[in-house]
């Protein structure tokens, strides 16, 4: 099972456009083994958010990508909580808080 397979299984009730955007943001990382889902989803979310901020893309037409970033972060935590227990979840939370804080702080 790949990251993409795991995500498709988790997003069956989500709008198809959101699932497609999540997979676009993941790119070739969607083919990574599902055991790496938390790490891969969080990395893709950080890359995509950095690109949005770097390009100054804050318009309505960028909303779907922002929703995909949010979904990727959520999916990363969901996978970590199911597969790695408290230690992995804590590490993921600290790393993501630091990275997203740096990204959003760089906007100003």
Report on the architecture of this protein.
- The protein is mainly α.
- Helix content is 73%, strand content 0%.
- The chain contains 5 helices and no strands.
- The mean pLDDT is 87.
Number of separate domains: 1
- The beta-strand count equals 0
What proportion strand?
Answer: under 5%
User: Would you tell me the structural class of the helices and strands?
Assistant: mainly alpha
Backbone CA Rg: 14 Å
Largest sheet, in brief, is: none
Shape: globular
Helical content stands at over 70%
User: What is the typical, i.e. mean, pLDDT?
Assistant: 87
> How large is the count of helical segments?
5
- Extract low-pLDDT stretches: none
The sequence of SSEs as H and E is: HHHHH
What layout of secondary structure does this protein have?
Blueprint: H1 3-10, H2 16-26, H3 37-54, H4 63-83, H5 85-105
Helix pairs in contact: 2-4, 3-4, 3-5, 4-5
